[in-house]
Amino acid sequence: MINLDKISLDKETILNATEEIIRRFGPDKANITDVAKLLKVSHAAIYRYYNGKTDLWNAVTERWLTRLHAPSNNILKEDSPADVKLSNLLESFVEAKHHSAINDPEMFANYIKLAQRSMEVIKKGIEEGINSIEKVIVQGITEGIFFTESPYQEARSVYLATSVFIHPNTFEDPDRKQNIESVINLLIKGLKNSN
User: Fold this and answer.
1) What is the torsion angle, in degrees rounded to the nearest 10, for the CA atoms of residue 149, residue 155, residue 160 and residue 165?
2) Structure pTM?
3) Superfamily holding 1-50
4) Fewer CB within 10 Å: N-end or C-end of the chain?
5) Distance CA 18, CA 148 (A)
6) Buried b (16+ CB within 10 A) or exposed e, 32-41
7) What is the distance between the alpha carbons of residues 171 and 167, in angstroms, rounded to a whole number?
8) Would you list the domain boundaries of the chain?
9) Which residues fall under the DNA-binding region feature (predicted)?
10) Fold of 63-192
């Protein structure tokens, strides 16, 4: 709950209030006026920070994706061989949304709706994921573990091959964990194959 005593308006405060409003009303019914009322500021005050509802909803979605992928960024900093790091990174990618859906199903459903409208934000998130995988593949090439002449293209293929597991339709599959491990192992074997 937002503390309204002597509130200092900034982007973070607005995003927190927007999340609370989206939680209450859902992304379709929530609006900037609701956010302004919660913060006890004028509608125009929100516009000093965000250029309309789409801009604000995109910022909320982007922040959610950033939080979701924070563990992945920590994996990139690990001091481990590229094959281990890639396996950990891919598992982190595919499990992040699954954990969000389990831990906060209401907000997860709202964010899925928001994400469908925030294609530029989603494209940026996908590109960041591909770039993270590419970094690990380049590390693997340097270590002599992975063999490829086009790390970016391989990273894109790896991302696409595992992206099926981030879809909510896969969350209830009893074989999900085993399927994820099988796909990741197959991809890593392919990167290690020098032929």
Assistant:
1) 140
2) 0.82
3) Homeodomain-like (1.10.10.60)
4) C
5) 45
6) bebbbebbeb
7) 7
8) 1-50, 63-192
9) 31-50
10) Tetracycline Repressor; domain 2 (1.10.357)
